[in-house]
Structure formats: structure tokens, C-alpha cells
Specification:
alpha/beta, Rossmann fold, 3 domains, about 35% helix, about 375 residues, 12 helices, globular, six-stranded parallel β-sheet, four-stranded antiparallel β-sheet
Length: about 375
């Protein structure tokens, strides 16, 4: 026990020394996205921040899934002097879920001593919780209850809720700082809400024949499982991919490897950012990377949009300079834009591993979602 405390004290002393070095620094400070708010709040004068890659998932929006059973367990464990405030919040959450609320906004107003008491309780009873229950200790929460389709009569209430911790207005607190975001997946509309109307976009897309899109088939994860049973489609993909490195969904790596494709071990959708080992190589990308729908709903709720209308159908839409048919939101323009943006982001990150802007690499993409600058290998999408 003594050694453990000694290590903690040593770490704290190192942090104090490092913080002092940062405050005295007149050079470039390098930090992770998550540490940026702490640097901005330090005593050092910051004039310009260069943000490498998109900060949606790493800084602006943190989404956790919490079990309602864990909330009930914590309610039983909290000390009596806190229970009225905490119990009131839990009651309002449960009432909202019972009423099929789309969004529940809550605040837990506890002083630092009471918060520390609850933190100690959770740490002493970790085995009793199956989800990151301490997320509920944040002062301001946006909660999106999860529902599942039960039958034609309605929806079944699930045992989980999505708790969103948002730094959506983070940059409005630093009006004297210039933020420069270098990313292949920058969405001007969303970022105007985060950074304000002063956002300026410098767009650089190299139109070439390096990205080749094969878009006849719907390439969602679900449909790819069916396509892999079609020997004609498999032979077609193998003929084009040959022995190129292949990037696809994490859960389909083993299946595609079993078909004889050269699947990259340490890359897949949602794990491509910054990796450079495929630079200059011809590669193949397989799949249309849809995110969990609740990601769109949670971000929409945080930004204050109406997310009640989630009806979808297959329809003709325009995006990236193309007109094409796609299964997306029927009437909710914001959710549609968010869905298309996140799909586009993952495809661009995967394609970018070949570094086509600065090399002559060819990227073959099997997806029914058109990427800007791609050459269409089938002609049923109108540009």
C-alpha cells in the first residue's frame, strides 16, 4: 500500500514539473486532442492551435453506454445526504424513458466533497457495475435512451442509455486563439457550429484516376456477408484486388482472409488514422462503413437538433457532386448530413493510407458510396 501511494506522489510531482515547463515554454507544444483543453486553460499564452486530423471522436463528443441497472445500484449505495438530488435525477431519467423521450437533459448538482464520496463508493464496489457508471457524475448530461423495434405495435425499452459528454462549445471559450484543422474529413457545416461563423475552408482535392469506385453492390457489413457467398462476386473482387493489401471491417477480416485476400492485420475501418505503412502501395478497400445510428442521434441531440424523426428509405440524393440512390433519412436533413459525413470520413481515411496525393498509388474501392474525385467503374451513378 505504501509503495502504491509513493508511486502516485512521484507521478504528481512529475506532472507539476511538466506543467511548469509548459507554462514557461515559448516553443511549440505537442499534445493529444484530449489534453488540449488543459493546455488552453494553463497560464501559457496560446495564439494558434494546429489540429491534426478530425477531433469529433477524440475531443468533441464522448458517448458512453450505461446500464439502467447500474444506475439503480448506485442509487442504493449513495450516502443519505446525497440521495434526494441523485434520486430526483434518476426518477426524471426513468420517467423520460417511460414516456418514450427522445432526449433527456439532466444536471447533477453536487459539491466536490459529495462527488468524491460517490467516487469512493464506486471504486469500492467496482464488481457491482458492468458499465462506466461514473459518466453520470458529469455536471451536464445529454441522455439518449435506446429503444429497439419490437413489432408493428411499437418499441421495446432497452436496459441501456447513451450518455453524451460534449465539448461542443469548447472553442467559443477562446476567442483570441486561431484554430487550424488539417484533415481529409472536415465538415464545414458541423464545424461552423463548433468554431462559429468565422470558419474558412481551404479545400484541396486532387482529381485523378487513382481512386476507382466499384459501386454496383450495397456493401454494408450485412450485405457483404451475403456477397461473400456469391462466387461470381468473390472472383470479381479477387481479380481486381490480386495480392494488394485490403482494408475492410474488423469483424470481416478473417472471412476475407479465408477467401484468399491479403487483409491488413492492423488496420480496419475506425482504425486507420495516421497509419503510413501503405504509402505508395496499390490497395483495395471493401465496404460502406455505417456507424451505429445512435452516434448520429447523440451528436444531433448535443447540437440541439430535432432527432425525433428517424424514418429512412432508399432514395435519390446528392452528395460529393454525385446523384445516387442511398438508404438514408427521409425527412431529417441534419441526420442525413451527419450519416453521410461519417461514412465519407471513414472511406477517406481508408483511401488515404495509400497517400494518393503525393504518390501514384491506385486505390480500388468496393462501396455504393461515391468518394470525391473517384473514377466510376460502373456508370449507373450520375455525376
Amino acid at each position: 500500500m505504501y509503495q502504491a501511494y509513493t508511486n502516485i506522489i512521484e507521478d504528481c510531482n512529475k506532472f507539476i514539473v511538466l506543467e511548469k515547463e509548459i507554462e514557461d515554454c515559448s516553443k511549440i507544444i505537442v499534445c493529444t486532442h484530449a489534453k488540449l483543453p488543459f493546455v488552453l486553460d494553463s497560464n501559457v499564452v496560446i495564439k494558434t492551435v494546429f489540429l491534426d486530423e478530425s477531433i469529433d471522436d477524440t475531443l468533441l463528443f464522448k458517448i458512453d453506454t450505461i446500464s439502467r441497472d447500474d444506475i439503480a445500484t448506485l442509487l442504493k449505495l449513495v450516502p443519505q445526504n446525497n440521495i434526494s438530488e441523485f434520486e430526483g435525477m434518476v426518477a426524471r431519467i426513468n420517467h423520460g424513458i417511460k414516456q418514450k423521450a427522445v432526449v433527456i437533459r439532466e444536471q447533477l448538482l453536487l459539491n466536490s466533497q459529495d462527488k468524491q464520496g460517490i467516487l469512493d463508493i464506486v471504486n469500492s464496489n467496482k464488481y457491482r457495475f458492468s458499465s462506466p457508471i461514473l459518466t453520470i457524475m458529469d455536471n451536464s448530461l445529454v441522455i439518449v435512451p435506446k429503444y429497439e423495434k419490437k413489432n408493428h405495435d411499437g418499441f421495446a425499452v432497452c436496459n441501456t442509455v447513451f450518455v453524451v459528454k460534449a465539448n461542443a462549445d469548447l472553442f467559443n471559450h477562446y476567442p483570441t486563439v486561431s484554430f487550424i484543422n488539417v484533415s481529409a474529413t472536415f465538415h464545414e457545416g458541423i464545424n461552423r457550429q463548433l468554431f462559429g461563423q468565422a470558419v474558412q475552408t481551404v479545400d484541396y482535392i486532387k482529381e485523378s484516376n487513382q481512386i476507382r469506385l466499384y459501386h454496383t453492390n450495397t456493401c454494408s457489413k450485412q450485405n457483404l456477408n451475403k456477397l461473400m457467398q456469391d462466387s461470381t462476386w468473390v472472383d470479381y473482387v479477387k481479380k481486381i484486388a490480386e495480392n494488394m493489401p485490403v482494408i475492410t471491417f474488423k469483424k470481416l477480416k478473417e472471412d476475407f482472409s479465408g477467401l484468399g485476400l491479403n487483409v491488413v492485420d492492423d488496420m480496419h475501418y475506425w482504425k486507420c488514422v495516421g497509419m503510413d505503412k501503405l504509402a505508395g502501395q496499390d490497395i483495395t478497400i471493401i465496404g460502406t462503413p455505417h456507424s451505429n445510428e445512435y452516434k448520429y442521434l447523440c451528436i444531433g441531440a448535443v447540437l440541439g437538433y430535432d432527432i425525433a424523426d428517424t424514418q429512412k428509405n432508399k432514395q435519390e440524393i446528392e452528395y460529393n457532386g454525385y446523384r445516387f440512390n442511398f438508404y438514408t433519412y427521409t425527412n431529417n436533413q441534419f441526420l442525413r448530413e451527419l450519416q453521410l459525413y461519417f461514412i465519407d470520413s471513414q472511406l477517406c481515411q481508408a483511401v488515404g493510407r495509400a497517400r494518393t496525393i503525393r504518390t501514384n498509388a491506385i486505390v480500388h474501392v468496393f462501396s455504393n458510396f461515391p468518394i470525391r474525385g473517384a473514377t466510376l467503374m460502373e456508370k449507373d451513378i450520375m455525376k
